[in-house]
Amino acid sequence: MVNKPQEERHLSSARAEAVFNVANAVNSTLELDELFELTLSETIRAIPDADGGALFLFDPASRLLTCRAYVNFDEKVEQIRLLPGESFTGDCYKKRKPILLSNRNEITGYPRSMRPENRQLLNHSMAMHPSNNSYRAMSVPLITAKEECIGVVTLNGFAEQGTFTVADVELLETIAGLAATALERAKLYEDIKIKNHTFKTMIDYQQSQLVNMNSGKGLDIMLEQLFEVVGKPLSLLTVYGEAYNTSSIPVDLRPVNEYMIRDGRQLLGKLLIYSNSSNDLRQTDDYFIQQSLLFFALEINRQAAVRQVEVRYKTELMDKLMKGILTEDFLAKAASLGLDTAGAFLPVAVRTGNSKPARPIDQLMKQNEIAVFLEMEIGRVFPGSLVVLHDQIYLLLLAVNPKANDKEIQRRLSAIAEETERFSNEYGETANARFGVGMLVQRIEELPDSLQSAIDTLKLMEESNCRERIADSSRFLLERLISGSSGKEVGQFINTFLGPIYRYDRDKGTELVKTLQAYCRNLQRPGHAAKELHIHTNTLQYRIKQISRLLDADLADPEILLNLQLACRLAGDNNITIDNQ
């Protein structure tokens, strides 16, 4: 630094005019980019032998000096990133003192050289000049009124003739002081502008989310709006089994941020944010997310309230139907809930799963998810139908064409049953889906009996461990015929015809009862019975002869065979208590 006594320092009228012009220029704007350009251009105009230059500011985030303005350099200079102490520009920043290099040898021989990548960029940026180098250079620090060094101004002379003097350095210091003050003021103004813009954006966002919620646009629209602000893929899951996603989520991304959506202590859902890093959320992003969580909670509760009212109406309607209370406005109420009352009705009773989850909340979530799934599938295949969860059974009132083909209805139901079982199995348990189908009816007065028939069929499917996913009311006519008999009478009937075989199996460890059941199911196809039992046909025939000897009966006798079939059907796969006699 050039240290002259204060009394020896004076500015010529020309230099004073230059300082005045620079001061007017830098004070004429508060826009940072414009201020950078004005500072540099007016400085070069004030110093005759300066042909070009660059203004570097220190970036606290990267801890590097970055080029913010330049004159007579190629745009490559903008890519230079200097460490404090690197080259004479970086050294000026680090030491907070001016540096004057009067000739080319001092520049090229400066002890603190540039890193190779920066040297290459600098050479590219000076390629427009014949020497591809400068003949003189000087740098002064930009020091604010708070004694904070915020950057460096470097001037270069590309013409061989000319020189930088101590007076030029002093003039540049004076200009740099003015520029630093102006830059500090402009930076404060810029920060205020950014904060005001951010605040306005936040207010606009809140109002927009509120409008979306009040207009009932739904969680998917509200989620997309948050996506537009934070710029990262999002997913939203609710405890009611609903899932919402923004535009396609890349397969290589995983959720790195998870926010719980709560109403007080009650968990309503969660928001997942997908990204390559868990640390790239801005402070403003977190604000938008926190605000959105509040709106999401309100919307989830609003939808839940609407859903609860609809569920209550559906439940009341189904209760009246099951009790046979068919008032005059029954069809009108059913139609208002979405049931197509113009055609025929096919009641179906559905249950999934073999066991309940350990926690009630898990059971509730599972029931809701399956109910939503059934509504989607039934609505797609049988539009105008109703789905109601009633006493752990999903009751479906399918709206079908009266002229619909029975096989086509069966095929569609089979596809839905298969998909329902697959969906239910996503809970990690072996969950059977059973569909008990009532009778197709065309009059509302016939619905109660048909609905009860569907429920009874479902229960008989469960009691008999029916392997099929779908069974209609005709599947268990025999069981219904004897349903009026006492359990003791049924047990006596089974014991009479199967007791000797049960006792033999118990004593000898054989499987003759299982063999007889398979044989009765496949009377005309002994090969199928053997395949079901995983035995050879000859082994099957041998066991049938054993059974014939134990029962002292001819299995070819139609009456005896009928009684054995009936006993096997009644016994099913349940454990039967057999008398020891």
From TrEMBL:
Q: What is the name of this protein?
A: Helix-turn-helix domain-containing protein
Q: Which family does it belong to?
A: Belongs to the CdaR family.
Species of the source: Bhargavaea changchunensis
Q: Which domain of life is it from?
A: Bacteria
PANTHER family hit by this protein:
CARBOHYDRATE DIACID REGULATOR, DNA-BINDING TRANSCRIPTIONAL ACTIVATOR ADER
| Domain GAF residue range list | 31-193
Q: Name one Pfam family in it.
A: HTH_30
Per the record, the coiled-coil ranges are none
